[in-house]
Amino acid sequence: MASILVTGGSGFLGANLCERLINEGNKVICLDNNYTGRMKNLENIINHPNFLFIKHDVIDSVQLNESIDEIYHLACPASPPAYQGKAAIMTTKTCVYGAINFLELAKKKNAKILLASTSEVYGDPLVHPQNESYRGNVNSIGIRACYDEGKRCAESLFFDYHREENVRIKVIRIFNTYGPRMDPKDGRVVSNFICQALRGEDITIYGQGTQTRSFCYVDDLIDAMIKMMQSPDDFVGPVNTGNPGEFTIKELAEKVIAKIGGNSKLRYCDLPKDDPTQRRPDISLAKEKLCWCPQINLDEGLDKTIEYFKNEIQSRGKK
Ligand code: NAD
Ligand code: UDP
């Protein structure tokens, strides 16, 4: 039984990860300030004897008495509406101070630590598909910079702690991931489109909907995270984790409407600033080093996610 710390553990990915790690027989400490996370995401495991929840902001340093073998460092808002605007400075602090605080903890506990980095380190990419050696095209003074540059700085801190302090690190760059335990209010495209269609509202397409994204189902991504953590110490990444299937946002909207039915129409809205025009991971490295490749295609993943949101919306309606 390993003793595993998950920061950001009440969020979408973190809660899926915590449940999987508990089901595999580990002891899990989940640490979160619940900024975008929800205790509801942890309802299946909150009373499990091997699970502990600690409310804590990763911007602040941390002391833990427990021994820790592995740290999955996920704490950070991931949806543009959650990390921009009045949350921008907090987001940079979360990325930078959060990385330092948990790298220090990893050093003290002699634990391996994995960073949930992001495809956003590639910015609005000029190379397509994106592989790990591409250095990106980020607007360092734009409205997404708090997140993009925050994660880039977190990556650089991880590599410096590895070089200077011999901390065992793992860095994954996650591309758009969706599935059960997303918050209906989260604001990302998959949750917005499904909830809008289920409520019979119009589907909000930002811009013309010609921008592309590659969508990975959550179970596939959790497999990749765990495989990365368990890979040999000399493989530190960064490694792209995502599903290379690429769709325009308009195609996604049409798929969602076709699956849910109803009267929703497409409503075209302003495109947010610096919105990347295309995204597709080159996952050759993950295939080679982790023997990992996504198993769930967009149609299958959307069906599972629609079922989840139907229940979410129904249970909210009853309250
Ligand atoms: P999420 O918003 O659902 O989860 C983030 C969690 O971090 C939440 O529980 C939130 O409360 C917590 N958090 C935020 N700031 C914190 C702080 N200062 N202290 C403590 N907890 C804090 O998002 P997610 O999709 O689950 O993303 C998890 C991680 O994966 C993030 O680091 C994100 O950057 C990364 N990621 C996700 C995606 C994706 O498509 N889901 C893509 C790329 C990267
Ligand atoms: N998007 C959209 N309508 C929405 C939400 C998002 O058209 O209601 C677009 C958004 O502009 C972006 C894409 O969908 O081009 C993915 O957005 P998301 O917020 O999910 O992730 P990210 O931009 O971080 O990839």
Could you name the key traits of this structure?
17% strand, two-stranded parallel ribbon, 9 helices, binds uridine-5'-diphosphate, 7-stranded parallel beta sheet, Rossmann fold, alpha/beta, binds nicotinamide-adenine-dinucleotide, globular, 319 residues
Could you please describe the fold and organization of this structure?
The termini are far apart. The protein has a domain at 3-178 and 217-243 and 281-294: Rossmann fold, CATH 3.40.50.720. The strands form 4 sheets. Strands 3-2-1-4-5-6-11 form a 7-stranded parallel sheet, sandwiched between helices. Strands 7-10 form a two-stranded parallel ribbon. A two-stranded parallel ribbon has the order 8-13. Helix content is 38%, strand content 17%. The chain has 9 helices and 13 strands. The model has no long low-confidence stretch (mean pLDDT 97). It is α/β, with parallel strands linked by helices and 319 residues long. The structure holds nicotinamide-adenine-dinucleotide (NAD) and uridine-5'-diphosphate. Uridine-5'-diphosphate binds next to helix 5 and strand 8.
